[in-house]
Protein 1
Amino acid sequence: DWIVPPDKLSNLRPVIFYVPPEESPLERRLREARQEAQACDQRFWARHNRAFSQEKEEFIYSRLKAKGLEMRDETGQKATLNAEEMADFYKDFLSKNFRKHMQYNRDWYKRNFTITFLMGQVALVRALRWLRWKKKNI
Amino acid sequence: GLFVWHLKNTGIRQIPCQFVHLCRVANHRLITFQYFNFLKRMYVTQYNKDLSQRVKPKADSVASPFRELQQLDQEKKIIHKIRPISPVHQPLSETSSRNELREMKSSAETEDSVTTVRAESKEDRQWKEMKLQLEDLPGILARLSKIKLTALVVSTASAGFAMAPVPFNLTCFLLASLGTGLASCAANSINQFFEVPFDSNMNRTKNRPLVRGQISPLLAVCFAASCGVPGIALLTLAVNPLTGALGAFNIFLYTCCYTPMKRMSIANTWVGAVVGAIPPIMGWTAATGSLDAGALLLGGILYSWQFPHFNALSWGLREDYSRGGYCMMSVTHPGLCRRVALRHCLALIGLSTMAPLLDITTWTFPIISLPINLYISYLGFRFYRDADRSSSRKLFFCSLWHLPMLLLVMFTCKKSFLEKEDKGDLLGESHGRAVEIRLP
């Protein structure tokens, strides 16, 4: 398996999975579960983070407009709001996405447990196989 | 081992830049790259498992400075020129198409060249094989178990043990500390196991082992079990059942209550404060075997301390919390956040005054601790009033030294249990006599 640097949008690190030539059904289930989980997570966080940046930009723009300022000041620097002004946006964003997060949490916990359990099963099977092989070769 | 990545002629266009890769010598010495070239850009990369500093982040591609620096003639330096890892590098095939990989690789590289400030180590930008190197394991497990936090937890438990009014028993003390440390490692590992995608999205936590794929979730769980079970067993059997029960309860509270609650309600902060308050209680019960008022007072002091500490910390992390979906007071109820911090700073003064009333310390304790308690309360008040980044940082950093100092002063003002027995005999003797004995 190989792991890649974090994705720009989702900040998650995709994993390229190794498919061994003699993959047992159990191992295939594990690999597919992990791939699916990865895809789900990637989709969720990419969308979520994109929405965050977009809404943040809109918020900054609307606030600056209300204050009568432009997006970029005289030196060409991007105008930003200070932390206290952004606090309203953060609070708003959190409450808006609360239900989405609850749903994602449930899914994430379920997926995490299933995958770890499958990993345990695979590890156990491999260990038993190795022990059997050892016994044969003594 | 050496990391030497070979080029494979795959027919895919390779980017002709060269990386200077840190080579690890077989006996795992840390090699420090020091480019003492003051005229050009200076890079100090300390290849330490935990920290990686970069003096000056590069705005353009990473490759060029290293190309310049190859002209430098330095001794103790081992450079391995490696070509960038092309995606089809993997000798083992995988399911996704080549095009997809090329896209991912190019996006990874664009990210490399575009991003400017990156505090994480260079290896994060490279593709890494997910194979656990045994020599990495101690460092990885240390980070998984949040070893520094664990050390602080163990020290608060030792403070609880030391404050208990019984003769000091070294074996018991060491066993209790070890048990508490193991329990804390287990709890922290499970916490990280539960929070992988959230940790990857927050700046503070994105370098954790599970996020970086250095360790598999299964291993994390096994490690947690192999720390938690012996830890609690040690506490229950070798110390006493009450301490063991408290330890087990604390693990449960932290992993099954606090961690999920962080994403559900702001009440998580109060639960977390209880989690922080239990270790000194555990230390006390380890020494005495019973839950006295003294234990609860010590727990109360830790409980109150958590609020200025955490609320000040969370003030600067509001953006990350909001994006990550964490329900924290600093995001949803900022006024409450500051009020609670101030309230508990003042409560610390009250609790310190209660200590002599419960016969734990002498009256010198509230007097000596008053300056530091007043100072943190003052910073708490400033935080309440100003509500800005600088006041929150001041409060946070104050809380870091306030607690050890408070516990130290408490220990030096501890009322000796011997002298308490004497007091019982000498009824009606002079009240004005100084009854302060420094050491138990």
Protein 2
Amino acid sequence: MAALRREGRRFAAPLISNNPIKPFRSSFAPAEEQALLGVRSISTQIVRNRMKSVRNIQKITKAMKMVAASKLRAIQTKAENSRGLWQPFTALLGDTPSVDVKKNVIVTISSDKGLCGGINSTSVKISRGIRKLNSGPDQESKYVILGEKAKVQLVRDSKNDIELIITELQKNPLNYTQVSVLADDILKNVEYDALRIVFNKFQSVVSFLPTTATVLSPEVVEKEAESGGKLGELDSYEIEGGETKSEVLQNLTEFQFSCVMFNAVLENACSEQGARMSAMDSSSRNAGEMLDRLTLTYNRTRQASITTELIEIISGASALEG
Amino acid sequence: MIRHASTGLLSRSIATGVQHRHFSSTEVPAADELFMMAWKRIMPNLDPPKTPLSFVRPRPSSISAADIASKLTVNLVSPYSEFSNREVDMVVVPATTGQMGILPGHMASISELKPGVLSIHDGDDVKKYFISSGFAFIHSNSVADIMATEAVPIEQVDPASVQKWLVEFTQKLSSASTDLEKAEAQIGVDVLVALNSAL
């Protein structure tokens, strides 16, 4: 309704002025005729231009939706195959998002391109929430950002807390080697007691659940195992291979991080494509509705100008007769 | 804060009469209570994020020592594929300490794996996979999780190219100058020797 009112206001403005519409003089012949007659009606040219641009937008968004659908199909199988990867880790080490540690690192995964609905904003909101949750007297939280969209939002208020920014992740198709190199990079450059990965889990084409997975550093794992609680049974496992338990634990946590990251990145990519599909779908539907309204306005305008012409001719003729 | 959580969970488990195992199917908490409560307090307008706990698949519950399962449940996962919940008789994994056989009722252990052949025995049926390192968790409820970075059925490995690459990497090893190059070449040689002996 507001759109209709806005359109109405825009078309009413030329009606008010009595001067011919100068910009159109140089362009189209039918507009020139109308301009010469004085502005008695809205120029159909404006409406026609607007219809052309809306039609183009509809085509573009429809094409973007198809592209997103095909990309989603390609990446969805990969994501589903990678879901088994983190299950054994959660079975062994549990998932403790409420763990109380000094150095928290929040890894926010987002997309590089826009037009994908609200998933990046939700990820950023959740990251901010987790940061607030872990802001005790001697606790600190740092960000590691994957993707342009989260970077733009988080740089605004937490510029000093950002450790690493990684963009253009999806230039080449996602594979485990690339993600493990990335994970290695993060682990080397960032000091952490707990890593909290924030991403959107792909549940279905219309539903994306913001999720956070927690990976603890080997020292914290040992501490938690000793203090009992969820990791208490870890000591009952016999460690084979490697020289010391701490070495094996370190390899284990690094492997866990890269596995969880791989799954998280894939799920987020799926969510991005799914969100883009639904955003572009609603956009092309809106464009279609707008086009319908514009067509009605166009026809009314055209008929009004024809009627005006007829009235003039007839009144002119009747004046001549008598 | 964690102590409170642990005592809370322990009291709950004692009440239900089951030994406290956080990965048994009878009492996996669907979400971390403490986290949910803290989140609701701090961000009341936003729904709390889900955690992996809500997506965990149920696993066979723990069993006491006297009651050992007859078959081993094996989950072989890699970043690109997974074979889950297969009931088999025995699994032989290439641990860093040598080939390790896992039978139902094996003691709980965590072992690092080196590149080698993993074989799954189910009756007379033996399936062999080549894995390039990873981890194997054996739980006391006769569930074995094997996580590998790459798991390839041995039939898909081409002997000719293995030989070719082995020659190339041994060459690289002998001509390596820096420590990094030496380490890389050594890794290549190790994997290919294991592959070669597996064929």
